[in-house]
Amino acid sequence: xxxxxxxxxxxxxxxxxxxxxxxxxxxxxxxxxxxxxxxxxxxxxxxxxxxxxxxxxxxxxxxxxxxxxxxxxxxxxxxxxxxxxxxxxxxxxxxxxxxxxxxxxxxxxxxxxxxxxxxxxxxxxxxxxxxxxxxxxxxxxxxxxxxxxxxxxxxxxxxxxxxxxxxxxxxxxxxxxxxxxxxx
Length: 184
Known about the structure:
Helices cover 38% and strands 8% of the residues. It is mainly alpha-helical. Helix 1 (41-55) packs across helix 3, helix 1 crosses helix 6 and helix 2 (64-71) packs across helix 3 (75-87).
């Protein structure tokens, strides 16, 4: 069963063991536990921060402490998340006592896939879909690789086609509708 919402994609895989063993035959530590595809808390927090910066403040710059306190997130964690988002060009950082963060481009131009990739790295639904992992020992006999590739492509396309602006529209909680962005 697959459940899809703006921030969670869950696949109930509780009856199966890890679907792909490393070439050396070792087993993942998660054998026997349900395998779940979902956004991590860091990615959730990053999306919340981008939404906050883009829509929920009338200030040109927002600092990590303000965002962290608003959502009851540890300030240190929020600061690290904002540094990653800045490094990946999703937000602009301004140093100094009156510094802070602003979107580096319009919310319509920042996709959920951009955020997931910045925070977590390459998006992959199975280890064999990620180039960094060792080849799967079932690669020669696997009967689901092509369907899994299609699933991978669809998930990436879904996340790439969903912007911070669309998350704001889905939220619909009467949040301010004036996006702020630093351009140039």
